[in-house]
Amino acid sequence: MGHMQPIVRILGIGFVFLTATIAGMVLGASTSSRATGQGTSLSGEVSELWGRAQHQAAPAFMFRWATTHEEHRTEQENGRTRLVKALVTEHHEKLGSPARRRPLYRSPPSDSSCSSRDDCAGRSCFRGPS
Known about the structure:
alpha+beta; 1 helix; 2 domains; two-stranded antiparallel ribbon
């Protein structure tokens, strides 16, 4: 009769689990209460010693890129019509989000001597949005 019945074992394990859960909840509540109380009471003393709290905004950055395309137009000059081809460069910019979810991919710009990602280390070689 040295063996415990399975139901008694399960009840014992359940009792230990329940007791540990309640103890954890009590410890968490008392820790949270003390931290909140001390933070409120000490904030005045800390600001008196170190000055008021300072808030700094997250940095923002700007993507700037240029696209070039060929434009065709007709011009009238001295009663004659002629076709004029011109290269037009458009400059774009877009504010980047500081809380960006996708990673930034570095790639060499088309008008640079960068030939690989390693060549662009430390320089602004960001690929513009598609």
